[in-house]
Design a protein that fits this description.
Blueprint: H1 3-11, H2 15-29, H3 35-43, H4 52-74, H5 81-92, H6 99-124, H7 131-149, H8 159-170, H9 177-188, H10 196-209
Helix pairs in contact: 1-2, 1-3, 2-4, 4-5, 7-9, 8-10, 9-10
Length: 210
């Protein structure tokens, strides 16, 4: 097996392509790289990242290391290694080139995430009751606040739900919202926990007395 066949096996290409790839790599590196050095460089590159470009970067890094050692031994300050190191670092650290873009996307996502709760609160926040419902809500909130202070568990429902449940319990003819308000106001003057069932009883009792 000649050196090009060995290279083809390591680089995962056909033997017919190996010679042209080796030639192109040597031209880009700028020196006649020995086949043994190429094979060693290939072994250090993850298979999923093995390309002509990454092989060239690895070999250029090797050249930078060799030049640095020679310069250190000769007392000459290295002025080229920084550029080589930067190129190599982009290759060596998995996903290093993509990181700035990822940080940008992440920053945008975080910005959207931070803004999301405020947007959701504006769109999903329950509407404040108005008119008769607001008067019912005022009485209920006062009554339920006092009940919680006494250790009781008042209904955890909205004013609309309170009115609908009261109307459903009373049955036909369904009482108006104003009639529910009257019942709630009457119960608010008593020492009781106001619930839809109790409001319905108040309405039914008053209707029977008429």
């Amino acid at each position: 097996m000649n050196e090009y066949e060995v290279f083809a096996k390591a680089f995962r290409c056909t033997p017919s392509m190996a010679e042209s790839i080796v030639k192109r790599v040597r031209e880009r590196v700028g020196r006649d790289v020995p086949m043994s050095e190429m094979l060693n460089a290939i072994k250090k590159i993850p298979p999923t990242r093995l390309t002509t470009d990454t092989l060239v970067i690895r070999l250029q890094k090797n050249s930078g290391i060799k030049n640095t050692r020679l310069q250190k031994n000769s007392g000459i300050k290295n002025t080229t290694r920084k550029a080589d190191d930067d190129d190599y670092d982009d290759f060596e650290v998995e996903g290093a080139i993509e990181m700035p873009a990822l940080r940008t996307v992440s920053s945008s996502s975080n910005s959207r995430t931070r803004n999301a709760p405020r947007t959701a609160s504006r769109t999903s926040a329950p509407k404040r009751p108005t008119g008769v419902n607001a008067q019912i809500d005022q009485v209920l909130q006062k009554n339920w606040t006092q009940a919680r202070a006494l250790g009781l568990n008042p209904p955890n429902i909205s004013v609309d739900q309170f009115v609908r449940q009261t109307q459903s319990t009373v049955g036909e003819p369904k009482p108006t919202v104003a009639r529910v308000l009257t019942a709630v106001q009457a119960l608010g003057k008593k020492d009781v926990l106001i619930t839809p069932n109790l409001a319905a009883d108040e309405i039914i009792e008053k209707d029977e007395l008429r």
